[in-house]
Amino acid sequence: MAKLLHGKKGDPLLRVHSVTYTADAKPILFDTSYYRADKYSFKSTLTRDTH
């Protein structure tokens, strides 16, 4: 992974798992992405439907 991201072995990574859903709540895309921790920062907003 370090070589693919042009980093060094042992450098920290950010791993992000995500799922994309259709309008009727069916999952259509599952993704795992890796980012160099020294190049990215993340802010996430989580929402939840009320039932």
UniProtKB/TrEMBL annotation:
Listed Gene3D superfamilies: Chorismate lyase-like (3.40.1410.10)
Residue span(s) of domain UbiC transcription regulator-associated: 2-40
Matching SUPFAM superfamilies: Chorismate lyase-like
A Pfam family that the UniProt record links to this protein: UTRA
Coiled coil region boundaries: none
Example of a GO biological process term: regulation of DNA-templated transcription
Molecular functions per Gene Ontology: DNA binding
Tree of life domain: Bacteria
Protein name: GntR family transcriptional regulator
